[in-house]
Amino acid sequence: DVKVTQSSRYLVKRTGEKVFLECVQDMDHENMFWYRQDPGLGLRLIYFSYDVKMKEKGDIPEGYSVSREKKERFSLILESASTNQTSMYLCASISGTGGAYTFGSGTRLTVV
Amino acid sequence: AQSVTQPDIHITVSEGASLELRCNYSYGATPYLFWYVQSPGQGLQLLLKYFSGDTLVQGIKGFEAEFKRSQSSFNLRKPSVHWSDAAEYFCAVGGGGATNKLIFGTGTLLAVQP
């Protein structure tokens, strides 16, 4: 089975800090995604990548950036964390030929 | 605009009762449709998917869903709910392609009464 690993389950960061959320998948998937999940809003796409060094903005990219230097790793960066970025962050991957997403377990980020 | 609507935010059923969770979508092309389940504090697990063919799709944990193109719906069903089914359920739609982007609904939280 494909495994998507998010490095941290829980994070607490201070306002203004630069925050890195890491995601690694082990099945050579081309496409990787970062979502944030908030009560009543479902999952909203922040950024996605369909190849190494390729990235595209999703629906809510403001305040975030991403990095994909290697195929298996997709990092989400909060340049200057703010309290409104407190949320659950979910990483997902899928083969370029289609199928279904595989999700990581999520990182619950609290910005204080 | 492409969208997914799950009209029920919260549903409570008794253990052993049947369940139907509603999902309506708006999508310009032939959709790929998915149902995911999320247990508290966890990521999302795929329950079932529809790409083409038979419009009644069987999934894991005894769930099934029916694609009705005329109604733009993909409702999730289970004939007899177990206490362990208590979770949040998400419907999603996409079109495949190079990016494989999915659009998710806002979720339905299922509570199961003993």
Account of the 3D structure:
- The complex is a heterodimer of chains A (112) and B (114).
- Helices cover 0% and strands 57% of the residues of chain A.
- Chain A contains no helices and 11 strands.
- In chain A, the strands form 2 sheets. In chain A, strands 2, 4, 5, 6, 9, 10 and 11 form a 7-stranded mixed sheet that branches. A 4-stranded antiparallel sheet of chain A has the order 1-3-8-7, with no helix packed on it.
- In chain A, strand 7 and strand 8 form a beta hairpin.
- The mean pLDDT of chain B is 92.
- In chain B, the strands form 3 sheets. In chain B, strands 2, 5, 6, 10, 11 and 12 form a 6-stranded mixed sheet that branches. Chain B has a 4-stranded antiparallel sheet with strand order 3-9-8-7, with no helix packed on it. A two-stranded antiparallel sheet of chain B has the order 1-4.
- The radius of gyration of chain B is 14 Å and the shape is globular.
- By secondary structure, chain B is mainly β.
- Classes of the chains: A mainly beta (112), B mainly beta (114).
- Chains A and B meet through strand 4, strand 5, strand 9 and strand 10 of A and strand 5 and strand 6 of B.
